[in-house]
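Input/output pair, single chain:
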Amino acid sequence: MTKLNVGLLFGGCSGEHEVSISSARSIAQALSNEANAEKYRLLPFYIDKDGAWRSPEIAREVLASGAAIPMSDAPPNRWQFPAEVSEIDVWFPILHGPNGEDGTVQGLLKLMQVPFVGSEVLGSAAGMDKIAMKMVFAQAGLPQVKYVAVKRSEVWSNPCVFPKLCDEIESQLGYPCFVKPANLGSSVGISKVRTRGELEAALDNAASYDRRIIVEAGVVAREIECAVLGNDQPKASVPGEITFQSDFYDYETKYTIGEADLFIPANIPPAVTTQIQERALQAFLALDCAGLARVDFFYVEATGEILINEINTLPGFTATSMYPQMWAASGIAYPELVDQLIQFAIERHSNK
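Output:
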C-alpha cells in the first residue's frame, strides 16, 4: 500500500505560535499510531515567527522540543519553500490565529492544488473576522448578543467623533460589555468594561491590535461549545461546557492549567443539546466551512435562550483541547479523528 505524504504545517506569525506547536505535537503523535502509520508518512514543516518555512528536519526538532526557534537577525526568506513541499499529497495546517486560519495560508495551499484539512478561503476568512462572522450568522437567522461594529479611524479620530461613538455604544449595549479586536484569536486584546473610562481605554487598546473592532453586550450565561466534523453533510459532537473563576475566558485562563474546568458532555437538558447541535451545523454550513470547526454558544439558563457566540475553524488540537475531547466523548478517538480529517480533505478536493 502506497502511503500518502501528509504535510503537517505549524508555527506561524501569530500570537498563538506556541499553541500551534502543541497542537502539531499531538497530531504528529496520532499519525504515528499503528493504523495511521500504515496509511500516512509524516512530513512536518515549521513556519518560524519571521514567516520563513523550515525543512522537515528542523520541524522535527521543534516537535521534539516543543519550543519555538528564536527569531533570527538575518532577513527571513519567506518565498523559498523547502524542497520536500513538492512531495506532499495532503496538507494538515494547524496554524492558529492570524496568518494561519484567516484564509491567507488556505489561499496559498489552494494555489498548490493539493488537498488540505479544514475550511477554504471563504470559511476561514469569515470565521476569523468577528464582524463578518456575525453578519453571516444574522443572515442565517442565528440568535446572538447585540453588538456594535467599530473602525479604528473612529477611535483614533478628532475629539468630536469619539465621544459620540461611546455615547452610541452605551445607548445600544449598556454595561457591562466586551470590546474585542475583530481578527485576533485566543482572547488577545479583549476587555470587559463597566464604565465610560474603561470603555474608552478598551477601544484604544483594541485599536492597537486591529483596524476593525467589535463591541458586544454582556450576558449572564453558561458557555457551551460544540464540535463539528465533515464537509457538506457534517455531524455535531456532544456539547461541552467551560467554567472558570476569572472575570471572563481570557488568554491566561484559557492556557493556564487549572484555571478552567471542562465538562463533557455538558449537563444541560436534552432539548438544549439538540438545539445547540442543530445551530452548530447551521453556522458551519452558513460560512461554507469544511473539515472541522468548534462553535461556541451562550446558554442563558434563566430564559432558556441559546445565543451563538463564535465559530473557530482551526480550534486548539492537543489531546486535552475541547474539540478532540468532545469527539472522544462522542465515540471518535484522537487518532481516528486525525484520519477522518485527512480523508475529508481529500474528499473535498476531489469534488472540485
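The first strand starts at residue 4 and ends at 11. The chain has three domains: 4-117, 127-143+219-350, 147-217.
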